[in-house]
Write a structure and sequence with these properties.
This protein is α+β, with helices and mostly antiparallel strands. It is built from 18 helices and 26 strands. The strands form 7 sheets. Strands 9-8-7-10-6-5-11-12 form an 8-stranded mixed β-sheet, with helices on one face. A 5-stranded mixed β-sheet has the order 13-14-17-15-16, sandwiched between helices. A hairpin with a 6-residue loop joins strand 13 and strand 14. Helix 9 runs parallel beside helix 10. The radius of gyration is 33 Å and the shape is elongated. Bound molecules: adenosine-5'-triphosphate and magnesium ion. Magnesium ion binds next to helix 2.
Length: 618
């Protein structure tokens, strides 16, 4: 059956032009028009007007009010301002005003500034490869001007007077002299008034305002030498003063709680210099919103950086938890391409691998440093020595192996510390070191100045986690053959997992053998857990493993975590003094002793100072 086009031409079915609505390719009186096969679309090449071109490219730069705020602040920073005031109304849809005390513009420059491809920041193609200003495309003002009513008031301190210029839909409608101290004020009114589609797609006011607040927050954090304020409908949302410290600025933006838990990092001199702040593993967030990365002062989004950091925290975070991190990366402009994204949010590094390494080394190194400072501070005070390493290696301790430490069978230098001193000749060890168990879960130690409280499960879990994790690289930990091998009869599902992972179990010290259909024999277990109820541990590990749905690589990581959790002393287990001492000594030998693998703290200290505050003596 034939169909008919608008001009009553018959054509076969396969052309499927919407019946009666469009002309077809056969229509002789519309030269050049052809119907697109199967789509019913008419194609004709038109040359777009400047106005349309302006609106299209504006769409790339100016997505929403926050993009305008970003571009205007960047211009102020590039103009060398050290004070920037931002005011918005209607979450930026009614008004955005950015006033700065930067270099300002001459009347001639002001006129040029709103045209497309006009910039004072680069002049040749090579310049693109050594950009050290935030702007360089010469597009922002033109784009904003194309989709708003804009007024620029500016004075460069040299012309006879300042200039006030009014621009609508990209066209300069008025220009007059105006008084103003050196600097520039740009007012953007009725954003997208001439692009209704864009206006319709804006989110509700509160979301647009949140976005503006985040944008301004990023500038506050990354420009400690600039005074920045933000008001919405006259209400002040931010105000930062010059000369505040980096962490004060972070606190102003991310809040005192987040900032209070952050540690400063610095990679030192490197090709990629990384400075900034990261949260301690025990104080993390449920999303990545407290992560901000700056590259040569420019805020960038980078999944790579975020994932690298996440990796550095591995084994310390619960699933779905993310560290807070404010990082400033400095790199020579030739080693990075900022020209790969319309709003310059994404960048491309010339040597991504090197940056990853620096990031990991710096973050991980900081944890280790913290370990030395924190956990061992207690031990230091305890006997007046300087640190656990020294403590560990004291000459007279060298051959000491308490019975208990001997039992530990850790791969490290087990048992060589005075902490496991039961029954041994340590004149200087005071009674106050004796641990007590409170609530069947917490180990409490007291000395003259501090009380150290350790969560027995979290601590032991950390110990096992490190032993099992290391086994992946350096071979199984010491294993203990069972005098009476244990037979386990599993569900089909569990047996499936066991079959798949029998070698992985072996890697972490569990020697198992298939024994008929769904049965297995446990022949040996990691010596470090041999005193635990082995059958329950293995059964619990399998039950947990069958509940996870992960890829092969993730499964092995999960096994390490689950085995550490299930193998560890539980809350509620009664512990003897020697067992408590053993856990504590093993914990102090861990690389990262502050948290369990899920990120909960293993121990904390109450200092005399805090006690005095509580009793209001201070
Ligand atoms: N606040 C300001 N103070 C002084 N000069 C400014 C200011 N804002 C804009 N200008 C001038 O106007 C020019 C055009 O600004 P515009 O933001 O459009 O482009 P750009 O900053 O050069 O590049 P980009 O499009 O990447 O932002 C700038 O190069 C600068 O010379
Ligand atoms: Mg700019």
């Amino acid at each position: 059956m034939s169909e008919v086009c608008r001009n009553a031409h018959n054509f076969p079915n396969f052309l499927r032009v919407a019946k009666g609505t469009l002309p077809c390719g056969k229509c002789p009186h519309i030269p050049g028009r052809r119907s697109l096969l199967g789509k019913g679309i008419i194609m004709k090449i038109n040359i777009l007007t400047e106005e349309v071109i302006g609106k299209i490219s504006a769409g790339e730069v100016v997505e929403r009010p926050a993009s305008v705020v970003k571009e205007l602040i960047e211009n102020s920073i590039d103009a060398g301002a050290d004070s920037i005031d931002i005011a918005v109304e209607g979450a930026g849809t009614k008004l955005i005003r950015v006033a700065d005390n930067g270099t300002g513009m001459s009347t001639d420059d002001a006129k040029l500034s709103c045209l497309r491809h006009t910039t004072s920041k680069i002049s040749s193609a090579e310049d693109i490869y050594r950009i050290n200003t935030l702007g360089f495309r010469g597009e922002a003002l033109a784009s904003i001007a194309a989709v708003s009513k804009m007024e620029i008031t500016t004075f460069d301190g040299e012309d006879k007077s300042g200039t006030c210029m009014y621009v609508e839909s990209g066209e300069i409608l008025r220009i007059r002299p105006a008084g103003r101290p050196r600097g520039t004020t740009i007012e953007v009114e009725n954003l997208f008034y001439n692009v209704p589609a864009r206006r319709k797609f804006l989110r509700k006011e509160s979301s647009e305002l949140t976005e503006i607040v985040s944008v301004v927050g990023r500038f506050i954090v990354s420009n400690p030498d600039i005074e920045i304020s933000l008001t919405q409908e006259g209400r002040r949302l931010f105000h930062s003063n010059r000369g505040e410290s980096g962490i004060e600025r972070v606190a102003a933006v991310l809040g005192d709680d987040v900032a209070g838990s952050m540690m400063e990092i610095d990679s030192g001199e490197e090709k990629y210099r990384v400075k900034g702040f990261i949260s301690s593993p025990s104080s993390t967030r449920k999303d990545r919103r407290a992560q901000m990365f700056f590259l040569n002062g420019r805020y960038v989004k980078s999944r790579m950086i975020s994932e690298t950091i996440q990796y550095a925290y591995r084994g310390m975070l619960e699933r779905g938890r993310y560290p807070a991190a404010v990082l400033f990366i400095t790199v020579s402009p030739e080693d990075v391409d900022v020209n790969v994204h319309p709003s310059k949010l994404m960048v491309k590094f010339s040597d991504e691998k090197a940056l990853k390494e620096v990031l990991q080394r710096t973050v991980y190194g900081r944890f280790k440093e913290e370990k030395k400072k924190d956990i061992s501070a207690f031990r230091e005070k305890e006997d007046g020595r300087t640190g656990p390493e020294e403590f560990l290696l004291r000459e007279e301790d060298k051959d000491i192996q308490t019975e208990f430490a001997y039992k530990e069978n850790l791969s490290g230098p087990a048992g060589k510390r005075s902490f496991c001193s039961e029954g041994l000749p340590f004149g200087e060890i005071q009674d106050t070191e004796r641990p007590f168990q409170v609530g069947g879960c917490y180990i409490v130690q007291v000395n003259d100045e501090d009380v150290l409280i350790t969560d027995q499960h979290a601590a032991h879990e950390r110990v096992l986690y490190e032993v099992f994790s290391k086994a992946k690289e350096s071979g199984p930990p010491e294993m203990q053959d069972l005098l009476f091998p244990i037979r386990m009869d599993l569900s089909a599902e569990e047996a499936l997992i066991m079959n798949k992972m029998i070698e992985d179990f072996k890697t972490i010290g569990f020697l198992l053998e298939a024994f008929g259909d769904n049965s297995f024999i446990v022949r040996a277990v990691p010596a470090i857990i041999k005193d635990r109820d082995v059958k329950t541990v293995v059964a619990d590990v399998l039950a947990d493993m069958s509940a996870v749905n992960l890829s092969r690589v993730e499964l092995v990581d999960e096994l390490v975590k689950i085995a550490a959790c299930r193998g560890a002393i539980k809350a509620g287990d009664r512990l003897g003094e020697d067992e408590m001492l053993s856990v504590l000594s093993q914990l102090s030998r861990c690389d990262l002793p502050f948290t369990c693998p899920h990120g909960r703290p293993t121990s904390f200290r109450i200092t005399i100072d805090e006690m005095e505050k509580r009793f209001r003596r201070k």
